[in-house]
Amino acid sequence: MWEALKDLMKEEIEEEMKKTQEKTTKNNINSLMNNLKWTAEQAMSALDIPAQEWETYKINL
After folding, report:
1. Distance between CA atoms of 21 and 23, rounded to whole angstroms?
2. For residues 29, 33, 36 and 37, what is the CA-based torsion angle, rounded to 10 degrees?
3. What are the tens digits of pLDDT across the range 4-59?
4. Which long-range contacts (CB under 8 A, 24 or more apart) does 16-20 make?
5. Which of 36, 32, 37 has the alpha carbon at shortest distance from 57?
């Protein structure tokens, strides 16, 4: 029982960490775009976001 609860909590924590990281990355992209007048692509490139993830972030900007 305890192990099952630990596994469930671990999954929930990892999901929240992923959401937080994505939100932070989105905020960083927006900051670069607003402050430096960069395009989304320029900002994501500067942040070393892999090109295969760009569409995911562009949809959420």
Report:
1. 5
2. 160
3. 778 889 999 999 999 999 999 999 999 999 999 999 999 999 999 999 999 999 98
4. none
5. 32
Structure tokens at 51: 């090109």
* Helix spans in the chain (H): 2-36, 40-46, 54-60
Residue carrying structure tokens 């932070």: 24
Measured CA to CA in angstroms, residue 48 lies from 12, 25, 42, 51 at distances of 27, 11, 10, 9
For the question of whether the overall pTM of this predicted structure is more than 0.85, the answer is no
Torsion angles phi and psi, residue 37, rounded to 5: 60, 35
Q: What is the pLDDT of residue 49?
A: 97
